[in-house]
Design a protein that fits this description.
Layout lengths: L7 E4 L4 E4 L5 H11 L9 E3 L14 H10 L4 E6 L6 H4 L4 E6 L3 H10 L3 E2 L1 E2 L16 H6 L2 E2 L12 E4 L6 E4 L5 H8 L3
Parallel strand pairs: 1-8, 3-5, 4-9
Antiparallel strand pairs: 1-2, 2-7, 3-6, 4-5, 9-10
Length: about 190
């Protein structure tokens, strides 16, 4: 479905996400429409291998590598300088892209099967809470997607910790599953 330009609801570690081919501007536009997402809000992407970063980011700093080594897969989203080739709708014209190595087995298998980065934004209308059970999906979201992968009840709770690695030292934009002290600890050796 994703390879054909469709949108899929799929499980991540905490919440259900909306997946589309992150490198297909039309598919990204569908995500924005479904979520009723503001144009100034970038969309994070999931990868199945660190090798996929080459098509998304300009560089990987030693700090970014240390955080990936310590916490990937899942749990931490890193914000990098985006490659110029990425859609402005994906980056919200910020020049940056949030990336996470998929941690949930279904999400990881999905991204691996697609073979390209997949959007990983939450499956909800913008500004509304995320969903940890498909039965609680916002009806306008559920009605507009092409497929729903129901993995039962997810953990819920805090999402990933988001760290901007475009600056030195890196800055935590949102503390989530990984506490700030743990991020600092991973960076202490570089």
């Amino acid at each position: 479905m994703i390879k054909q330009g469709g949108v899929v609801v799929f499980p991540t570690r905490s919440l259900y996400g909306l997946g589309a081919d992150a490198l297909d501007p039309d598919a990204v536009e569908k995500i924005i429409k479904i979520k009723q997402r503001p144009a100034d809000n970038p969309i994070l992407v999931l990868i199945y291998s660190r090798r996929q970063l080459d098509s998304l980011v300009k560089n990987i700093s030693p700090a970014a590598a240390a955080i990936m080594d310590a916490f990937w897969p899942g749990r931490v989203t890193l914000v990098f300088d985006a490659c110029d080739s990425l859609s402005n709708r994906l980056t919200a014209r910020s020049g940056k892209i949030g990336v996470r190595l998929a941690g949930h087995p279904v999400a990881a298998a999905l991204v691996r099967q697609v073979g390209r980065p997949v959007t990983g934004t939450s499956a909800n209308l913008s500004g509304r809470p995320g969903c940890h059970q498909v039965q609680y999906l916002d009806p306008p979201v559920a009605e507009q997607v092409d497929l729903i992968l129901d993995a039962g009840v997810l953990e819920g709770g805090a999402g990933s910790t988001v760290v901007d690695v475009t600056i030195d030292p890196p800055k935590i934009l949102r503390e989530g599953q990984v506490p700030a002290d743990d991020i600092s600890g991973a960076l202490s050796g570089i």
